Amino acid sequence: MYYTYVLRSHKDNNLYIVYSGDLIKRFKEHNDGLVNATRGRKPFDLIYYEACKDKKKAIEREKYFKTGFGRKFLNNRI
Predict the structure, then answer these.
(1) What CA–CA distance (Å, rounded) separates 45 from 32?
(2) pTM of the model as a whole
């Protein structure tokens, strides 16, 4: 399984949208400061995720969530 997930930064309240094959491990890495892209924005809350059967679908969902329609969808969910 692959997961598309949304993190909210405690530091700046911004969202970080990404996918991973191991959600729990990757979430821990974000909060431990091991991910360069999010190191300065930790700590995080996991506020939304979706499970996908394959990597391609997870990437498609990530790209969708980064669009205006995708952001609107997320705002209605969270």
Answers:
(1) 13
(2) 0.89
